[in-house]
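Tutorial sheet, problem 5. The two components below are modelled jointly, 689 residues in total.
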Amino acid sequence: MKLAPFESRWAEAAMQTIYPGSLDIGLSDIRAMDVGKFLCELMMHLPWKAALGLRIAVWVVALAPWFVLRRLTTIAQLAPEDRERMVAILVASPSYAIRSLVLILKAMGALLYAADDGVRTRMAPPRPSMIPLRVKRVHAA
Amino acid sequence: MHPFDPPVGFSVFPDESLPEGAVVDGERLAHDTEDAFDYVVVGSGAAGAVAAHALSSAGFSVGVVEEGPWVRTREFGDGVLGAFRRMFRDAGTQVMEGRSYVPLLQGRCVGGSTVMNSAIAHRTPEDILDEWATDFGLGDALSAKLLEPHFEALERELNVHAVADDALGENNRLFLDEARAHGLPARRMHRYEKGCRGSARCFTGCPSAAKQGMNVSYVPWSLARGARIYCSCRVERVVVEYGRARGVVARTVGGPPHVARREGRRVALHARRGVIVAASTVQTPNLLRRSGLRARALGEHFQCHPGAGVAAVFDAPVEMGFGATQGAESVHLRRTDRIKLETLSIPPELAAVRIPGIGRELMNRFGAFAHLAMWAVVVRAEARGTVRAGWGGRDKIKLSLTRSDVERARKGLALLARMMFDAGAREVWPGLFGVPNVLRNPDEVRLIDEGPTDPRAYGFITTHLFGAARMGLDPRTSVVGPDFQTHEAAGLYVVDSSVFPTNLGVNPQHSIMAMSRLAAARIAETRARGVVGTRSRPPPPTASGAAA
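Model answer (structure tokens):
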């Protein structure tokens, strides 16, 4: 169920649209996180039904310019502003299936993006009060 | 380095100092194998681990079979993806199908869902037990009096107590303060834990083994009493011969599922006295069906507690990453409105999906994560669904929430949104399609009140599952009798929440464990009286409930 290279490029473009990063608040772009490798591993571990759902999501978002923007191109060829506008329309789609498929990409992308050390530190700075517990006893009831 | 590692050379975690030969890892098993025990327990979650402990403590030899791997405390990371892949069923992608798709999270590892839940202890509400007694004809078979000593024992052994001050965290404190201000009785969660550090990492496995999941409590304790566990072994069927359960046949699993199914080794475990099925509400009915049981009620009457969260941004930091993952609740509306309100701290990877928007809008909101609080409503849903075997051997779960269920969830979300504004939130994110992503003043909460009743508009998720092999007197409408033994096969017992006639309205782990302990005590007592190998019903339970 591995994604073909062109599907991987589409997925990367979609995830980059959702998680573009922000220099202002110190969040890096998802492209700095090896999206291709992540997708490859993800497809290997997902059950077939979930993997199929992810693949359909990639195709729907990739070809959405056809029916959302009336342009015969894929998401990878769009300018960043157009991509964002288009994905925002899909997320707000009255069709449950369409918006759910885009949410799959958002959810899968989050597993990579928000797991990045830099992003995590920016989102949830570690607390100095979290002192590691070093010694515990083995319980025996 | 694991932040909670003990000093080098000093093994302290309960899942590390296990008796030699007590753990058979299916991922490493090089050949087919067989073994024999008095009892074989299928599943090592809340129900299975407690039953194994009770039976091994009563002097029986016990073999436990667990489909998932044993992920040790030392291996727990803080990443959601790693936890999903290794410890959750279907890598966390399991869904309940109906009018909407509702994610359904289940553990698939030694300890089951207790490894990644919030360890919340609620005794079975008495009105629910009364309902079972009258509406389902169970009489005194599951009374509060019978369960009392089992609840007490569990609370003692697993150290149940209210969340302590130093592990409470701001998300929980805000909820408690605001609930009181709204005249809503609320309390700190009562949890199974010993020395919680407030790492808010319950969902990915407690890194300090403070949470008393089965992986660090009843499973190791059972092994210390002579039990043996076969992990990464999926039970294909219970062997039923001449109307009596004789053992189980399992296959080892490991690595990608399609590879594991092809290459798995055969593991045959013979049960001299009985087989105890505790595989969960979803897996139990399908296992029984694969084993030849044909009860009409099998896979029917499935129920759940769907939940939905509402998030809010505060001016002051909330830091969901510190404090009990779920540390505060209100069950005040359980009976009148069938809802429970609670806190829910989730890691950034899961929170990201609940943060509204995409692109620059989403990134700007990521920056506010430290100021984010999240509370949730859990519904005691009326909807009933089914559990069947799906294509490719997977479980197929179907349930559509009723309009009343959705209206109740909506009411709870609106109440939580009001509480959040009153607590000082500058923005509330209802996560409800058809309602603005961001509400900026309390007047806008009416938009939730008037929101859609279509379940597809909500971001429901569920973890509490019930029914599908329910208990009752009539074999035409139930699968097991009040003695937890199936109507169809002697010596085949079901002790997980699939036997619950209905859902509860509160977190079920405590009820599951108490019922399992009661069942194991009854089984042990019955066997001690020498009633073995017949299809006749065992004698009714004693007044003490055969409490150990």
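Marking note: The longest helix of chain B spans residues 403-422. Full credit if you identified this.
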